[in-house]
Amino acid sequence: MGNTKKKTATSPDQAEGHAGVWVLGDIRTEALKKATRSLLDVASGLARKRAAPLSLVLLGRHLEPHLEFFLRCPADRILCMDHQRLEHYRQETYTGALAHLAREERPEIFLFLSNDCGRELAPRLAARLDTGLCADCIRLGIDPQTGLLIQTVPAFGDQIYGKILTPEKRPQMATVRPDATLDGADDLPEKGSDTPQIRKVPFPGKSVKERVKRLGTKKDPDQDRSMEDARVVLCGGRGIGSEGRFQTLWDLAELLEGEVGATRPAVHAHWVDEGRMVGQTGRTIAPEVLLAFGISGAIQFTAAIQQSRYIVGVNRDPKASIFSCADLGIVGDVKQILPELLRKLQKLLIEQYGKSPEEVYPEGIGRPISGLGKRLRDLREQRGYEIGEVALVLEVTSQDVEGIEGGQATASVSLLLRFAQLYRVDPAPFLTMADGARADRRRVESYTKRTQNYSYRTLTPGAEQKHLRAFRITIDPRRDHKMIEYKHEGEEFVYVLRGEVEIKVGEDLHAMKRGESLHFEASIPHHLRNPSAQKTELIVVLYTP
Fold first, then answer.
1. Higher pLDDT, 484 or 93
2. Cα dihedral across residues 421, 424, 428, 434: positive or negative
3. Mean pLDDT computed over 491-519
4. Superfamily classification of domain 15-207
């Protein structure tokens, strides 16, 4: 019988001509540069264990302003590929440039941030280099016997951890989470010079093919501030319950100068844009304070918030997983806690911090276009229709379409069905969104109409869109009010604090004095008048379904 050989893991030393640890830098925002710096710290440990150089790879245009940030990083060298074709990120161009550079330099290990860019580039590059890729690593190390890269990843909802090796192919590639750690970090050889060598590498030119042509860029106004850079982030999940309640997060974020994020269920419900999804397949954030409302705390979400300094979780389930990573946990119904928190914060800002009511109760500031309007706009743009074309097909004016998309107008049920038919989508979500929008608009209109003709002080600040509101009204002596007919859905309660008042409800006239009250159906036409020579003060409570 001939000799047989048992196949074993190939030592990196046997991987012909491959050496060094590489990290791809992400320089799009300050937060991503900081994340790159953290990944370099982990990669530095790997490089020292392998007694190999550590290289930071930067691609882009006009890279000089970014170099200063990395001059004190633990890299031995910075490879800069600066070219006009790299000014704007395109995955095909970046993949071709990295593939050419990796074939020329032959790194042993190549690491990427586990974010949108890393998840897109790394698998494409691995396919071109005919090597493996380990995704979303939470820990890295070097096997002391084989010298192979040990890549640890979670599985089955973080219940178990797997260690993955790439025994034969090179480079060994991985995308790495921001909170990743290094095995054996306490037993590392000393690092040499802290000043990396800067080396410019040429763009491979014609060898990089581009099938996508960039026509232009239009910035989303909702993305003016980066969630990764925010000091305060408020995240909402399925427990918020509805798009209307989710809007309260925008009110809170505006007062706290923070940003709004969401879990996948909230995004799929169209309560917020997909670009604000926080999680393994969304954004990874590290604010000073993270407030999580109605979020159970699945590993897909918590993996992306581990670097937050303080985490506050609100959930009615005391066994919710979010409490295992929260610094402060509040067990309760978020539907009650969220509006109460907003009310108390508004009161605090006015009474203790000297804010004006106009600053604390701005209408619509910080809120995106309503969910229905934005959904219709997105569908139109995805189908490639102009507003005029949609208006022509639906037999309405262009102004009608603009108003509906912008949230200033409400579409009828029949018009929504025609929208759905034109865009070839299920109309059911449209009708649900429209019902909520109409209810909110009725409450706002009723509140505005009721209060615009009198001197009043609200007793429920910030409740313009809530079902129950109360305020104190002052009517001047013998003021001959214009006979405006008020009516709205729901009920109204009036209590006379001082003076007299005449309230006409339908055909019935009620003359009331101090201490008397009246309760009536607010859908009946009604108006108020002060018949006396003194000021009249009332407490009015409105309920709108």
1. 93
2. negative
3. 90
4. HUPs (3.40.50.620)
End-to-end CA distance of the chain: 89
DSSP 507: T
> What 3-state class would DSSP assign to 444?
helix
**Where in the chain are the domains?**
15-207, 227-360, 371-425, 449-543
The backbone torsions φ and ψ at residue 401, rounded to the nearest 5 degrees and listed phi first, read -65, -45
Any idea which residue has 């209109």 for tokens?
A: 445
Whether 437 has a pLDDT exceeding 80, the answer reads no
What is the layout of strands, in order, in the sheet containing 508-513? 508-513, 500-505, 526-529
Written as six digits, the tokens of 47 are 């490089």
Residue 434 CA, chain-centre distance (Å), reads 23
Which amino acid makes up residue 62?
H
Helices 428-451 and 243-256, axial angle in degrees (round to 10)? 60
Nearest CA among 278, 285, 303, 293 for reference residue 245? 293
| Token couple for 164 | 């993955």
CA distance 481 to 38: 68
Tokens at residue 285, please? 């954030």
Q: Do the domains spanning 15-207 and 227-360 agree at the CATH topology level?
A: yes
Looking up tokens 């954030």, which residue turns up?
A: 285
Other Cβ atoms closer than 10 A to 63: 19
How far CA 154 is from CA of 159, 183, 252, in Å, comes to 7, 15, 34
In CATH, 371-425 is 2.40.50.100 = no
- The pLDDT, as a whole number, for residue 11 is 45
Check residue 129 and give its pLDDT.
92
Q: How far apart are CA 350 and CA 52, in angstroms?
A: 59
Closest residue by Cα to residue 262 from 234, 281, 243, 242: 234
Containing 528, the helix (H) or strand (E) segment is strand 526-529
**pLDDT of amino acid 125:** 92
Specify the CATH number for 227-360; select among 3.40.1360.10, 3.40.50.1220, 3.10.450.40, 3.40.50.10540: 3.40.50.1220
Over residues 47-63, the mean pLDDT reads: 89
The Cα–Cα gap between 489 and 470 comes to 16
In this structure, what DSSP letter does residue 64 have? H
pLDDT in tens, 379-414: 888 888 888 888 888 888 887 888 788 766 667 777
Could you tell me where the beta strands, DSSP code E, fall in 101-250? 109-113, 133-142, 149-155, 160-164, 172-182, 197-200, 232-236
Q: What are the backbone dihedrals phi and psi of residue 342, each rounded to the nearest 5 degrees, phi first?
A: -60, -45
Distance from C-alpha of 533 to C-alpha of 135, rounded to nearest angstrom: 79
Phi-psi region for residue 257, left (φ > 0), alpha (ψ -120 to 50) or beta?
A: left
Mean pLDDT, the chain, integer:
79
Instruction: Check whether the bond before 357 is cis (ω within 30° of 0).
Output: no
- Number of neighbouring beta carbons within 10 Å of residue 241: 17
SS3 of the chain: helix, strand, coil, percent, to 5:
35, 25, 40
User: Which CATH number applies to 449-543?
Assistant: 2.60.120.10
Kindly report the length of the chain: 545
- Whole-angstrom Cα distance, residue 289 to residue 230? 9
